[in-house]
Amino acid sequence: MKKPNVIDPKRGAERQTAFSRRNFLRGLGVTVALPALESFLPRSCVAAPGDAPAVTTTASGAPMRMAYIYFPNGAHQANWTPTGEGRDYRLSRTMEPLAAFKDKMQVLGGLNHEGGYPGPDGAGDHARASGGFLSGVRVRKTAGSDIHAGITIDQIVAREAGHLTRFPSLELTCDVVRKSGSCDSGYSCAYQYNLAWTSPTAPLAPEPNPRLVFERLFGAGPRGERQANYQLRQQEQSSVLDFVLDEARTLQQQTSARDRQRVDQYLTGLRSIEQRIQQAEHFGATPDPDANTPAGIPDSFRDYMRLVYGVLHLAFQTDATRIATFLLANDGSNRIFPDIDIPEGHHHLTHHRNNAEMMAKVALIDRYYAEQFAWFLEQLESSKELDGSSILDNSMIMYGAGIADGNRHSHNNLPIILAGGAGGAVTPGRFTRLRSQPITNLFLSMADRMGVRNVERLGDSTGRVEGL
User: Fold this and answer.
1) What pLDDT does 295 receive?
2) What does the alpha-carbon distance between residue 361 and residue 326 come to, in Å, rounded to a whole number?
3) Residues linked to residue 397 through DSSP beta bridges, in sequence order
């Protein structure tokens, strides 16, 4: 079977050559980032997606959507886990805000993320939890530039199905963006702040500003002016890319052997951007939704999450993309929640040592996150397709975390919800207690339903989830 390509640059000790970064970037501003070269200051690059004939539509012809929404620090299990089983399950206190969607979602128990456990690496469960969540790998323990995780399932699907929409995938967050530095017990911040990885060494940074996401999707300015502004931006980006590609080819002839490999990967990444621009042009005029451009990042975290959820809803509604990841907050986040009168940090509270008051506050935070997820599902359910079904009916929206219990840093029996019906390809309205297995089995099952069936394994996967 065809396996996804993996770009894994070899490391060596080649000689360094002095170059003028200023000359290379002259006229570019911050439009294009340079790859990590030993010849001058390191930056980052993105690997290129591939092409494949996947068809992400339902039996009725409606687009199939897939999203992975990640909340931090696990969940308080006693308040998360439903009672009963199958269709007769009863929602837990944490899930009560999702009552209207009880028949539109499937709660899954028994899924594990073994790569989150320490093994020989010691502390750092939060970095391992999110860094390897969508790839099923154990990330390399390093705070340096030699990060190593795995290609994530969203990007594997995007490589095969992303050509069907203007944007192969969408990466979102309600946190800051970090791709370097030390964050968790000697692990790079890249692991905690990035869900999507295009290669084991290249995280795909999410966008935290809902206004910038909106303008990227639909263009800047008020309704009626966005299409012209979008086209102008595309033309400017094309001109910049032409210049950078020429300069990078020249640079490639003057670098060390090790740098030439990196420049080649960089060129591949630039070509993928060029292909995305051409792809967007192929789809013609951009949609111009009847929605105001978000002003930016609001002060209220509730409003912030709902703004980003709202932009994701518009992206699905206009078929701008069918694949998305949304990191609500980095795993290990110590955010406070004044909206619900919790002044203590989230991460601090999860280490409650069975203190009743702290556990109650953790449960309230879990419920707070669930409330915003319920709001998102309501938007998807209220948006109808041509055949009368809803976007939610034709979606697979995974909501969960790479840590099960934040107090014990456990990674077995993760808190996972799969919302949506995948156009009839999954059976919602159940609490399913699966026999213990890797969560990557679920991800492969979701990829199958997206029309991507040539992925034999993902990280620690052992097969597919049966009876999904």
Assistant:
1) 84
2) 24
3) 67, 419
Mean pLDDT within 179-200: 96
How far apart, in whole angstroms, are the C-alpha atoms of residue 66 and residue 419?
Answer: 10
Across the range 162-172, mean pLDDT stands at 94
CB 70 within 8 A of CB 402: yes
pLDDT at 222: 75
Give which of 329, 368, 336 is closest to 175, Cα–Cα.
329
Query: Residue 337 in 3-state DSSP?
Result: strand
How many Å is the Cα radius of gyration of the chain? 22
Amino acid sitting at position 110: G
Q: How far apart are CA 413 and CA 436, in angstroms?
A: 8
Cβ-proximal residues to 79 (8 Å cutoff; 6+ apart), any chain: 92, 93, 94, 363, 366, 367
| CB contact at 8 A, 162 and 323 | yes
pLDDT value at residue 34: 42
Residues in the chain: 468
Between CA 81 and CA 308 the distance in angstroms is 27
- The C-alpha torsion from 48 through 49 and 52 to 56, rounded to 10°, is -160
For residue 420, the tally of other CB atoms under 10 A from its CB is: 28
pLDDT beyond 50 at 39:
no
Burial of residue 421 (number of CB atoms within 10 Å: 0-12, 13-18, 19+): buried
